[in-house]
Amino acid sequence: MPLFADALVGLIALLHVYILVLEMFLWDTPTGLRAFRMTPEKAAITKVLAANQGLYNGFLAAGLGWGLWLGAEGYAVKLFFLGCVLVAGLYGGLTVGRKILYIQAVPAAGAIALLLFAV
After folding, report:
1. Distance, CA of 32 to CA of 115 (rounded, Å)
2. Which whole number is the average pLDDT over 20-43?
3. Which of 2, 71, 101, 105 is most solvent-facing, going by the fewest CB within 10 Å?
4. Helix (H) or strand (E) holding 43
5. Measured between alpha carbons, how far is residue 102 from residues 45, 93, 106 in Å?
6. Residue 1 has pLDDT above 80, yes or no
7. Does residue 99 have a pLDDT over 90?
8. CB 35 within 8 A of CB 22
9. How far is 56 from 52, CA to CA, in rounded Å?
10. What does pTM read for this prediction?
11. Reported confidence tier of residue 9, pLDDT bands at 50, 70, 90
12. In this predicted structure, what is the pLDDT of residue 119?
C-alpha cells in the first residue's frame, strides 16, 4: 500500500508540474487557451497572474517531490503538501469550476487516505 500511495503522490506532483507549464509558459498558446477555455484577449490580460499561479503549483510539486525523496521520513511532508493541494482544489472547485474538484481535490483526498491507511 505505501508504494501505491507514493505512486499517487508522484502522479499528483507531475500534474502540478504540468499545470505550472500550462500557466507559466503555455497560457496564451492554443494549448493554454483550450485547457482554460479562454479567448486570446482574456489570456493576454491575465498572463502575469497565471504565471504567478503556475509558480505556486510548482511549489506544490516541489513539496510533494521533497516528501517522496525523503522516503518514509517524508510522511508528514507529503501529508502537508497534499493538504495544500486539497484545499486549493476545494477552493478552485467552489470559485472557478467543478472540474478543479475532480482534477485536484479528489486525487489529493485519495492520496491522503492511502497515506493514512499505509501507516
Report:
1. 33
2. 97
3. 71
4. helix 40-69
5. 27, 8, 5
6. no
7. yes
8. yes
9. 7
10. 0.93
11. very high
12. 78
Measured distance CA(77)–CA(67) in Å, rounded: 5
CB 103 within 8 A of CB 15: yes
Q: What average pLDDT score do residues 79-83 get? A: 98
- Say whether 5 sits in a helix, a strand or coil: helix
Query: Which amino acid makes up residue 96?
Result: V
Structural contact between residues 26 and 53, judged by C-beta atoms closer than 8 angstroms: no
CA gap 47, 38 in Å, rounded: 11
Within 13 Å, how many C-alpha atoms sit on residue 6's CB side? 15
The CA–CA distances, whole Å, from 80 to 9, 35, 66, 74, 118 equal: 12, 28, 11, 10, 16
Instruction: Let me know: does 75 contact 82? Beta carbons within 8 Å.
Output: no
* pLDDT for residue 118: 87
Give CA angle at 96 (93, 98), nearest 5°.
Answer: 40
With a CB cutoff of 8 Å and minimum separation 6, the contacts of 41 are none
